[in-house]
Automatic annotation (TrEMBL):
TM regions (residue ranges): 22-43, 50-66
InterPro entries: DNA_pol_proc_fac, LytR/CpsA/Psr_CW_biosynth, LytR_CpsA_psr
Domain Cell envelope-related transcriptional attenuator, first and last residues per copy: 234-379
UniProt organism field: Abiotrophia defectiva ATCC 49176
Occurrences of domain DNA polymerase processivity factor (ranges): 48-161
GO BP annotations, alphabetical order: DNA replication
This protein's name: Cell envelope-like function transcriptional attenuator common domain protein
């Protein structure tokens, strides 16, 4: 009775198997069998057949309740992950000739870009004073790159470092990691608001979400870093999935990481590489893209590719079509033209590469889409369903999403109801490369940017609106 009650609760609360009357048949069948068992028990006619039937019902209901509970817990964990983002703030000195211990910095000056990162810098300073009784004076510099350059020049004994900017610094100075050592670290956790991103400024946003079975936009962000998926990091993959359940259309719109666009929120609406929006949090990336394409973005999925692609080995690899031969920098894998079967490490090399591709970052974006599409297909296979628990365990460590289970089940139920396959179309924003453009996150740095082609942008905006039915 308890197991049957749990099955009914999960089915009705989360709209599981609501398509084609499956709920009615499952609940009706359970109710009929339970009623029969009650009647037979009242008549004192519990024979062997009845006992076998009762055992099957109990085991079936228990298994069903267990699997539904596991699915609900899985989505709850993914949703809980979205409620926070983490970054590590550090005090760093030179690896050679620098300060030996953080206590030696008491009363000394350290360098930090207060104009860019005041709140995080202050959080580190406060934590250092509270836990180690060390007080430092912060001298403002234009950027973390400027702080590092002045540290090298001996103008200060230490600098503040935000982990979200480390990959940017490593891109500008190959020996950055070996030149410094960290004296003190503070893990700074902040809460993330769960609101759809609207095309208008964020202070005018509403919390409205799409009605049942209505079209919506889902932002897919891919980071490539060690540590938990909640770590603040650049977003190297930026895809808007426009999903229309009524017409069974999915439009995947890729925006290259180097696209030179106004960055929302922490980017102060100044132009910079799109990938830099990620260091201000996933919300900044959502708001940036919502304004760029003049469309609301209702939900997001954030993947840590370094750990997420490990799922590929769990499901036995994926198959993709490669349209140009290349050798990856990561892993030195040779990828010929044609159908490829990839394991997790090969897939990581496949999605990371851009320098060997004729289209550079644009082609890398296409390879990201290929891997994501192939993995989605594999996750929906019958073989993978038998490994559901293992797959969910791995995904919960590498995925964040604010997509609720009820919305996911709407898509599943609609698919069960219609039986019609989705048509998936992939497009990408284009432009031309340029250097010398100012970067808000890295002022003074010579960075490659992609200046957006306005005709391409207008076409992408129109395609998104068309799939949304606008």
């Amino acid at each position: 009775m308890v197991a049957s009650g749990l099955v009914a609760y999960f089915l009705l609360t989360y709209k599981i198997l609501a398509g084609r009357g499956y709920q009615f048949w499952v609940l009706g069948g359970l109710g009929a069998v339970l009623l029969l068992l009650i009647l037979l028990n009242g008549l004192k006619r519990l024979g062997k057949t009845t006992l076998v039937l009762a055992t099957i019902v109990i085991l079936g209901a228990s298994y069903g309740a267990y699997q539904m509970n596991a699915t609900v817990n899985f989505f709850n964990k993914l949703n809980t992950n979205t409620q926070k983002q983490e970054l590590t703030m550090s005090l760093a000195t030179l690896a050679e000739g620098g300060v030996a211990d953080v206590a030696a910095l008491d009363g000394k000056v350290v360098l930090a870009p207060l104009g860019q990162d005041r709140d995080n810098v202050q959080a580190l300073v406060d934590d250092l004073k509270a836990k180690r009784q060390v007080t430092v004076t912060v001298q403002e510099v234009p950027s973390y790159l400027a702080a590092y350059q002045q540290l090298l020049d001996g103008k200060a004994q230490a600098m503040v470092l935000n982990s979200g900017y480390e990959s940017l610094l490593e891109g500008m100075a190959n020996d950055f990691s070996s030149k410094i050592k960290k004296l003190y670290q503070y893990n700074h956790v902040t809460e993330v608001a769960d609101q759809p991103a609207k095309p208008e400024p964020s202070n005018q946003q509403t919390s409205q979400t799409p009605a049942e079975n209505q079209p919506f936009n889902l932002y897919i962000s891919g980071i490539d870093t060690f540590g938990p998926v909640s770590s603040v990091s650049r977003s190297d993959v930026n895809v808007i999935a426009t999903i229309n359940p009524k017409t069974h259309q999915i439009l995947l719109t890729t925006t290259p990481r180097d696209a030179y666009v106004p960055i929302a929120d922490g980017g102060a609406d100044q132009k910079d590489k799109l990938t830099h929006a990620g260091i201000y949090g996933v919300e900044a990336s959502m708001h940036t893209l919502a304004r760029l394409y003049d469309t609301p973005i209702d939900y997001y999925v954030r993947l840590n590719f370094t750990s997420f692609l490990n799922i590929i080995d769990t499901v036995g690899g994926i198959d993709v079509y490669n349209d140009q031969a290349f050798t990856s920098l990561y892993g030195k894998y040779d990828f010929p033209v044609g159908e490829l079967h990839l394991n997790a490490d090969q897939a990581l090399g496949f999605v990371r590469e851009r320098y060997s591709l004729s289209g550079g970052d644009n082609d890398r974006g296409k390879n990201h889409e290929k891997v994501i599409t192939a993995l989605i297909k594999k996750l929906g296979s019958r073989q993978t369903l038998l490994q559901a628990q293992e797959v969910m365990d791995r995904m919960s460590q590498s995925v964040q999403t604010n997509l609720p289970l009820t919305k996911a089940m709407e898509l599943v139920n609609e698919q069960l109801e219609s039986g019609q396959a989705y048509t998936v179309t992939s497009v990408a924003l284009t432009g031309h490369g340029s250097t010398g453009l100012p970067s808000y996150a890295m002022p003074g740095a010579e960075l490659y940017m992609m200046q957006v082609d306005e005709a391409s942008l207008a076409e992408r905006q129109a395609q998104i609106k068309q799939v949304l039915g606008q």
